[in-house]
Amino acid sequence: MTAAKIRPALEGYLTERDGKPHLLGSRCTACGTYYFPRLDSFCRNPACDSTDFEEVPLSRSGRLWSYTNAAYQPPAPYIPVKDPYEPFAIAAVELEREGMIVLGQCAEGIAVEDLRVGTPMELIVEPLFSDDEGDAIIWKWKPQTAGADA
Predict the structure, then answer these.
(1) From the CB of residue 49, how many other CB atoms can be counted at a distance below 10 Å?
(2) What percent of the chain has pLDDT over 90?
């Protein structure tokens, strides 16, 4: 990443804790259901009618629940971040503590052929794009290395 200012590509989706990136979610204070992205209107759990949430950093690790690829450039009005378009793998990861599924791109260099359902995965951040304001980072998933934690 460049020495310029680093910023999240999506404001309010990422936080840092103990020098490590975390997705930022919310938890219903009545029933304990987790949400990502953050939720602040009403609990979507049918058995709960609460409107109170606390902001929480989510687990950094989980297991690969499913995966696919983004082999084709999306149609207009979507603009590819890289020109020419480069296909990438997408992972659905079941978070370790929360048990919820979070989608995200896979890290640079991780292809669909490298993935298997059940693989331990960890959250990282990489630049999505760079401009005059610096790097805009996004969360991504990669197979977990020894010593990675939640």
Answers:
(1) 10
(2) 63
